[in-house]
Amino acid sequence: MSVELDVFVGNTTIMDEEVYQFWLDGYTVNDAVKVRMEGGVLEECEASAEVLRSDTMDQYRTFQMCERLLHSPAKLANQLLFQIPPHRQAMLIERYYTFDGVFVREVLGKKLSKGTKKDLDDVSAKTGVTLKSCRRQFDNFKRVFKVVEELKGPLVENIRQHFLLSDKLARDYAAIVFFANNRFETGKKKLHYLTFQDFAFCAGQLIIVHCNHSRVLMRPALIGKEFLQDLKELKILITDKDLLDQHKSLVCTALRGKTKAFNEMEANFKNLSRGLVNIAAKLTNTKDVRDFFIDLVEKFIEPCRSDKWTAGDMRLYLTHYTNSAHILDTFKHQVVWDRYMGVIKSCILKMYHD
Amino acid sequence: MPGKLKAKIVAGRHLPVMDRASDLTDAFVEVKFGNTTFKTDVYPKSLNPQWNSEWFKFEVDDEDLQDEPLQITVLDHDTYSANDAIGKVYIDIDPLLSSEAATVISGWFPIYDTIHGIRGEINVLVKVDLFNDLNRFRQSSCGVKFFCTTSIPRCYRAALVHGFVEELVVNEDPEYQWIDRIRTPRASNEARQRLISLMSGELQRKIGLKVLEMGGNAVVGYLQCFDLEGESGLVVRAIGTACTLDKLIPGSASNTNTHPNTAPASNACNSPSKEIKEPVFSEDPTHPLSVPPTPLRTLPSSSSPPPFSPSKLCSRQSSSSDTDLSLTPKMGMGSGISVGKEAGPLKTLLRQQAQSALEQREFPFFTLTCFPPGFLVHIGGVVSARSVKLLDRIHNPALGNTRSYKLLDWNSVAADEPETRDAWWEEIRQEIKSHAKALGCHAVVGYSESTTIWYITHTILRPTSISSEEVCILSASGTAAMLNPRFMREGCLDAGGSDQRLSRQPPLGMVGSERAEGEVSSSWLGFDDASPPSCGFCHIPYDEFNMPFPAQLTYCYHCRRQKVPDVLFTTIDLPAEAAVTGKGCLIQARLCRTKKKAQGEVNATAISNLLPFMEYELHTQLMNKLKLRCMNALFGLRIQISVGENMLLGLASATGVYLSALPAPGGIQIAGKTPSDLSYDQHISTMQKRINDTIAMNKELYNIHPPECIEEVVGSPIPDRQRSRLFRSTSESSDELSELDLSHGKKDAFVLEIDDTDAVEDIQSLLTDAPMPAGFYSCNTEVMPGIYNWTSGLQMFTSVRVYRLNNANLTNQGLNKIFTDLCENLLKSLYFKLRSMIPCCLCHLNFTVAVPEEELIQVAVTAVAMSFDKETQLAADKALNKGSGENEEQLQFSMELCGESTSSNNQPTAKPSGLPESAMTHSSSRDRCSTWLELLRLKAHTIRRGSVKTTSSSERCSPLPEVRSRSLRSTRSLPCGAPVTVVKMTPLSFLPRTRIVKYLGIINMFFIRETTSLREEGGVSGFLHSFIAEVFAMVRAHVAALGGNAVVSYSMKECVFMENPNKNQAQCLINVSGDAVIFVRESDQEAIPPLITCGQTSTTGADGTT
């Protein structure tokens, strides 16, 4: 005797969060059943493996039917096919769009193209996330990208409204979209120590301000057209020998005695300052933008780390470095400087860890 | 004369992409009614078109309004080629024709295509202006209300119950017309859907006419079915109960009653004042009650209420199968006229009068399963009839003769003259009627009819055609009963005095509060019946000395006055006023019998020969299982027999309960015929032990602690041979019982002889029924006896399974085992799925079995899971347990309760003296008496508190529903962004903790879905899963558009699934029905959310409940 057909349909759609997670994680029905059996549902409800299998199949089918709706979550609320209480709808959407940190770290900054999608099996093998789940996550990125690309207005808000996501998740998606659009290099070995959350934070800093149009908005906020020239002007801080010395002495005066790493700071000041200002100048060139993080690490974070700066040292240094520039009489680009350093400082502080 | 139908197409959303190039759609809509078609403009390049059309007006006869559906077709405009259909919406406008139902249909409807399923939604507004028509000869029956609910709908009262109405309409099935060979599957499916819609409209209209003729205004318990007879055609038939219903004004006293199940004490506090009536018992020939008031007599069609002499006692199931028209010898004495010694001539006369009212009707049948209090006087037992017919057709359908059948009644082979389907059913109904008579009953309640059709070549997917030789089993069943004829009397409303009461009487099922009960029982009982309502229906209606079948009679354990049978089988719901001990449970008997493959007449004979055996075995199984659960009555019995090519399947489902009025069931004894072998004896005794253990366990599980005989049954040791012999002799001699004393009856045990293989099988099947997991209960009736405090959490579901028997050469036993496992596994799956709702009860569990192909068995279940509140349940249980310790205690305690609430009774302490002596036999000592009283006071106190709470909460909910429905309407018709109204669905006639304030009309929908890409749609399961979900969605959408928020009495009457995996094809037909209603929550705080938003969640907060 074999079961040829087996369905269960409730007026209110029954969904088990645990099974939903298995489905999202790309488990096969068999695997899901196995894990559920080990999980002890059976003893709890005196069910057999057969019962569990039937239940799992039903739920998988339901999820598959819902998937189409989840692609445009607003539809879920006014579709008629499934009667799902609103809080369950929210759960379905949020979970569907939730991604694995390890996975996103692999594709962050890559072009969301067919080519990348083809390589997902490598990513899957590397991260241990099932290929099915990788595909879903990748498609989610792509879908969000495609939608917000066309929209005006603030990025995070657009994502949140269009996909009915929580604020946190919407911000993460904004970061992913932002990275994908600018193709930031994140895969280099030197950047491996950085987590997705580090990058997401930096993206948040970079996107944070103004911008009112899609294409533009996808670029780092610092690249707003009006700043292009201004950023270049910052170069004076390193090209003008006097200014550089003056800046150094101001910073050193302020720092003296306040940190153990003072000697190293003093010795490295010029190099570090050059590094930061060069990054600013480079931002004006769209093609060089993608090296932003690698530059930041190579030119600034690594030297500091080898000198064993603590996080406190770093904060102290950056604060004084930024503020001292205001005292330089010949330095006229205070506003741009503040804005640039505000972003860079918070990025560095976030990225400065092991 | 006419009406004006107006329709407006507002907008569409989520349309499918019809133009690949642009990824958009140029949609327009055709609105068709009858032969008139209107079109909207094309709304170019949008998946969310806003047509905002003008009002399309159709001027039509009301006859057409009733028959035709409004047909809305959404198309994609194509300049160069034919326009592509996106899908259709059929809207039944019948609800708009009754002034009391809906006034406008407005909302989003799923656009449905029989090949692709739901493809987007369309927002439509429909209105009807009806002109008054006083033409007496009109063909329409606008305004007659239809209800699927098999009880008097909640916000109505029954002024009059007219009786049985039936009708059937026959047509060719478009699927088998020659044109089907050239048209597309889509066109064919649509033709079929449309035809069935038309036919059911016509059927409804015709039944409506009959109702008007009878002077009624409504049909309750409307049951419509389709028989897809293949090439022989398509039969749509319906039965129902014609009534005159009066709408209750919301907020009036009688309407604020809560459902009996929400009042924890409803069972315990039965019949407050009955004890007063006890002394004036009908044995007394001068009993004033037996003389009806004069107005009743003067009316020719009226009859006096039947007096119930103690000589008429109760019953059991009488079922007769297949085509044997003559009564079985057992039932030979036929007539219900009592010839008992005690029954005086006067009573005989009255009884005849009572019957005459009903006998004037051709068929005194009632499709209701719940009745207003006092309606049901006595129950005889189940009556059923089956008939095997051979469908054969002479004429070519292309000739267009729609009624061209040579209906070969294969039993009377000589039958040359063609009969009609009407004649078939007529025959069966006559048989049922005579069975009822044999049981001394003049009416049949809980009546239903069904058919099983078997095609010889069961292939369905075009272009194959079905062979013309088909076998069809017609079945009818019901419960023989004695009714109080008052409800059926003409002019009942004009008669003063006593009838005034009728109008105040709460609608059925609302007798929960003590006030209502007090009112009802005092008036009813004082009038015509000495039987307390809590047990009166159990008393036998037939003559003790001419019993239609062997049964053991004892004096009623409740009133000790009249006789009751040892077991009672019925097809109705448990009467609300019945006294029940413990809880009930679902009991199923399952049976599989192999049959030789055959065709035509030979096949019909084979089936016909098997039927009686199957019925017998099902009956035995039911009986055994009932005893195993220590219960003594079955309610909602439904026996289904399906035919396959090489087997017959029988499934009987019912809800077992322990009726306090009936004797405790004896245990089950196993006896061996050749008790010589020692090991054999041991085997028997281990079996016996298992059975005894199971019984004991079940008693705990169902909380059955019957009054006196607990010790004897539970404690009975494993019997030695002598004892078993004794038992056997008791049961064997049961035929000649004349005077049974009480103690005798309860010792009776059911003997199973283990010698033949059948018995072994029986025992096996008895013990293989897995117990329900903790926290679950199940029943197939409206409500579960013993559970009162439902929460509002409920989940209606449909589950379908198809099994393939891989081994073709199975024996009966093997098949039985498989079939049993199959049902058990399905139940287990349901329990698992619904575990988040624990504690809960699966109510109205309705199984349907079919044998769609040679080795396939299909089982479909529709039911509702309702969770209840554990805490209060425990308290109630405790109270009941204590209360059920002694019968007297219960009576007492309810009296005290009513004394409080109605202030019409005397001191409770005065009661024991009024108790009949017989009732005191088991508890004669005085000091025990005084201890009860204390106990009682305590209990009465707790329960009173409980009931006060329910009444007050229901009073709070009085605020006008109309206002709310209006506000609902205003939010509903908003465009895309508006939240979808939550629509609850339930197969029950009520929603716990809510009050139905308006019935919006009947929902009766028929859908076909077909696919030619089965694998791509996820195989058969994926296909059916989405189809069922779509059907639910369409039902919900129609209800929401009518302004409703729930469907009650929902049922899936047909689910025909066919597949052809080789061709990657499948087809499924589903027919559903129910009543669209508006409900409000019982408390004000909760009242608004369910109507306006979808934000409400169940109070349990459990997953998947809303």
From TrEMBL, chain A:
What phylogenetic lineage does the species belong to?
Eukaryota, Metazoa, Chordata, Craniata, Vertebrata
UniProt xrefs under Pfam families: FIBP (PF05427)
Q: Name one GO molecular function term.
A: fibroblast growth factor binding
Its Gene Ontology cellular component terms are: nucleus
What's the domain of life for this entry? Answer: Eukaryota
**GO process terms (BP):** platelet aggregation
Q: What is this protein called?
A: Fibroblast growth factor (acidic) intracellular binding protein a
